[in-house]
Amino acid sequence: MFLLAEMTDTVRIEPWLFNVKLNDAITEELNKKLANKVVHNVGLCIALHDITKLEDSHILPGDGASHTKVHFRYVVFHPFVDEIVIGRIRSCSREGVHVTLGFFDDILIPPEALQQPSHFDETEQVWVWQYQSEDGTHDLFMDVNEVIRFRVVDKVFVDTTPNKPEESIEPGTEITEQEVKKSPYSLVGSISEPGLGLLTWWSS
């Protein structure tokens, strides 16, 4: 679920931080820049693990700050495909079951990846697995805040860098909420196999 990503960056240290140890100042700047941010095709950055190499620092003309090329390893959230993860149900919609890990919310289990047969209950706004047993059919509700075990089946990275200025958008063009709120990193999960789904389903 977590891995160490090797990265390189040039860190700028303001002059008023020159009295601080260089490693400490660089650590603070890197965490300020990367912590809780998504790096495209890398994952969600959590915290600096260590600094592996510091190159020479330079002060550029007209800029009193120092610039240091830093090689470092960062703890990144990036589960691999087929990894089993446990989270909690955040909400349900016709799109599927939305899951949170507490620090990461962009996880969707689509309808086709649920235990089958399942249907969406419009009144309760939850998905329901119609479990078939020897004594009949039982409705198992996927309620909000329930603990759920799922398999990661896909990882989606979206480049959210602005690609055109607002003034270039044609007047009258409708912009959907989904287009405005694109997540830079999301996971697709599945519970369509024995042992996956709500933990209460499989507890004795």
Name some characteristics of this structure.
204 residues, mainly beta, Dna Ligase, domain 1, OB fold (Dihydrolipoamide Acetyltransferase, E2P), 2 domains, five-stranded mixed β-barrel, four-stranded antiparallel beta sheet, 3 helices, elongated
Global mean pLDDT = 89
Q: How much helicity do the residues have? A: 10-25%
- The count of strands amounts to 13
Largest sheet: 5 strands, mixed, barrel
| Rg, Cα atoms, Å | 23 Å
Short description:
With about 200 residues, the protein is mostly beta strands. It has helices spanning about 20-35, 175-180, 200, and strands at about 1-15, 40, 45-60, 65-75, 85-95, 95-100, 105-110, 120, 125-135, 135-140, 145-155, 185-190, 195-200.
Describe this structure as you would to a colleague.
With 204 residues, the protein is mostly beta strands. The protein has two domains: 76 residues, 2-Layer Sandwich (Dna Ligase, domain 1); 119 residues, Nucleic acid-binding proteins (OB fold (Dihydrolipoamide Acetyltransferase, E2P), Beta Barrel), CATH 2.40.50. The protein is built from three helices and 13 strands. The protein has a five-stranded mixed barrel. A hairpin with a 2-residue loop joins β5 and β6.
